[in-house]
């Protein structure tokens, strides 16, 4: 079946070429479906988390959460309970809608704050990890640029 000058195919192979428009050079070029598949696998979350670790050694610590990972699981293992700690959230301009940050703390952190890193706010985020093994999940809403506590 033809549409204009293009043919429509019913099956594809990984070696087939696709036409792409590259914004940075404002040019058209081609890529194999295999190359596209590799790109997609590297950039689409399958529901899993990328694990990040931090072991603060003093109160007043700041943990910078990785930018560029879709979902992040921060395992926080302070040497002791601390009076204060802060989390720098992933850069908002690189976050995707529904991106999650899960934070577990093995120790008490009395005062928890968030460095927004371009986000508008954190709604419902914990202000304390009042007990050892406390946790929370924040989910990013791209249209409003707000992190919401969802668990």
Measured on Cα atoms, how large is the radius of gyration? Answer: 21 Å
Question: Could you describe the largest sheet, including whether it forms a barrel?
Answer: 6 strands, mixed
Our measurement of the CA-to-CA distance between the termini, rounded to an integer number of angstroms, reads 51 Å
Structural class: mainly beta
**What is the typical, i.e. mean, pLDDT?**
89
DSSP summary: helix tally = 1
SSE topology string: EEEEHEEEEEEEEE
Show unreliable segments: none
Q: Oligomeric state of the chains?
A: single chain
The proportion of strand residues reads 35-45%
Overall geometry:
elongated
Number of domains: 2
Question: What's the β-strand tally?
Answer: 13
Structural commentary:
With 151 residues, this protein is mainly beta. It has two domains: 2-43, no CATH class; 50-149. Helix content is 7%, strand content 43%. It is built from one helix and 13 strands, in the order ββββαβββββββββ. It has one helix at 33-43; strands at residues 2-3, 6-7, 17-22, 27-32, 50-54, 61-64, 72-76, 82-88, 100-105, 109-115, 121-123, 134-141, 146-149. A six-stranded mixed sheet has the order 5-7-9-12-13-11, with no helix packed on it. A three-stranded parallel sheet has the order 6-8-10, with no helix packed on it. The longest helix has 11 residues, at 33-43. The chain starts with a strand and ends with a strand. The mean pLDDT is 89.
């Amino acid at each position: 079946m033809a549409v204009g000058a293009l043919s429509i195919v019913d099956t594809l192979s990984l070696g087939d070429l696709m036409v792409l428009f590259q914004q940075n050079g404002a040019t058209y070029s081609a890529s194999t479906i295999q190359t596209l598949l590799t790109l997609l696998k590297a950039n689409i979350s399958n529901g899993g988390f990328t694990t990040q670790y931090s072991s603060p050694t003093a109160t007043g610590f700041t943990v910078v959460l990785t930018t560029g990972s879709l979902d992040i699981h921060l395992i926080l293992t302070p040497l002791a309970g601390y009076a204060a700690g802060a989390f720098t959230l992933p850069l908002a301009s690189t976050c995707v809608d529904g991106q999650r940050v899960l934070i577990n703390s093995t120790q008490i952190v009395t005062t928890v704050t968030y460095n927004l890193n371009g986000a508008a706010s954190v709604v419902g985020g914990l202000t304390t990890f009042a007990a050892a093994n406390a946790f929370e999940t924040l989910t990013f809403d791209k249209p409003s640029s707000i992190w919401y506590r969802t668990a």
